[in-house]
From TrEMBL:
Gene Ontology CC terms: endoplasmic reticulum membrane; endoplasmic reticulum-Golgi intermediate compartment membrane; Golgi apparatus
Record-annotated GOLD domain positions: 44-125
Protein name: TMED5 protein
Alphabetized PROSITE patterns for the sequence: GOLD (PS50866)
InterPro entries for this protein: Emp24-like, GOLD_dom, GOLD_dom_sf
Coiled coil: none
Membrane topology: Single-pass type I membrane protein
Pfam families in alphabetical order: EMP24_GP25L
Gene: Tmed5
Organism: Chroicocephalus maculipennis
Subcellular location: Endoplasmic reticulum membrane; Endoplasmic reticulum-Golgi intermediate compartment membrane; Golgi apparatus, cis-Golgi network membrane; Membrane
Transmembrane regions: 196-216
The family this protein is said to belong to: Belongs to the EMP24/GP25L family.
Keywords: Endoplasmic reticulum, Membrane, Signal, Transmembrane, Transmembrane helix
Length: 228
């Protein structure tokens, strides 16, 4: 099985096959990543995310396009235990406290034999251990805080607050783009349906009009035979 190429891959590259119908990929250690891919009919795609102990993994997904706008979702712990199972849902948000190991999450479209699905998901990783190192780095370069009457902790708190708000803004914008893409796909599908049934109604009207003209014309025809 050759995996379907996915443009715009920001999180990582598909590198490990779980089964003939399941692929897995490991992402770079990014704190906030999003990804959109196409899941063919009858297929199941799985991904790995390495996590640390006492960290937090938040995952949000949406089905942007495809018949029914639904998919099965599985989230498994490093021990193989099922933490989350969503059956034929269009979207979902899940947050789990993690331990050391690789967490696996899968999107399952095996119940569909015809329709492929376009799926967007976003990962948000908290308490991955980078903030403490950042604080130590800041302490190396900041001196004389007593003379400035300002504590280093206050500076770090303000910076972290701004960073958190910026991250939240980026996350909201990303989700809004996903909602916009799904709404646009629904509108385009409705537009095609309206055009199709409008053409069907127009065809029926033309046929009915032709039959009515023929019937009226036949009523006024002189069917009497001329005498010789």
């Amino acid at each position: 099985m050759v995996p379907v190429p996915w443009p715009g891959l920001l999180l990582g590259c598909l590198g490990l096959f779980l089964s003939p119908q399941a692929a897995a990929a490991e992402f770079s250690p990014s704190l906030d990543s999003d990804f959109t891919f196409t899941l063919p009919a009858g297929r199941r795609e799985c991904f790995y995310q390495p996590m640390r102990k006492e960290a937090s993994l938040e995952l949000e997904y949406q089905v942007l396009d495809g018949a029914g706008l639904d998919v099965d979702f599985h989230l498994l712990s490093p021990k193989g235990e099922t933490l989350v199972f969503d059956e034929r849902k269009s979207d979902g948000v899940h947050t789990v406290e993690t331990e050391d190991g690789d967490y696996m999450f899968c999107f399952d479209n095996t119940f569909s034999t015809i329709s492929e699905k376009v799926i967007f998901f976003e990962l948000i990783l908290d308490n991955m251990g980078d903030d403490g190192q950042d604080q130590e780095d800041w302490k190396k370069y900041v001196t004389g805080t007593d003379l400035l009457d300002m504590k280093l902790e206050d500076i770090l708190e303000s910076i972290n607050s701004v960073k958190a708000r910026l991250s939240k803004s980026v996350q909201i914008q990303t989700l809004l783009r996903a909602f916009e893409a799904r709404d646009r796909n629904i509108q385009e599908s409705n537009f095609d349906r309206v055009n199709f049934w409008s053409m069907v109604n127009l065809g029926v009207m033309v046929v009915v009009s032709a039959v009515q003209v023929y019937m009226l014309k036949s009523l006024f025809e002189d069917k009497r035979k001329s005498r010789t």
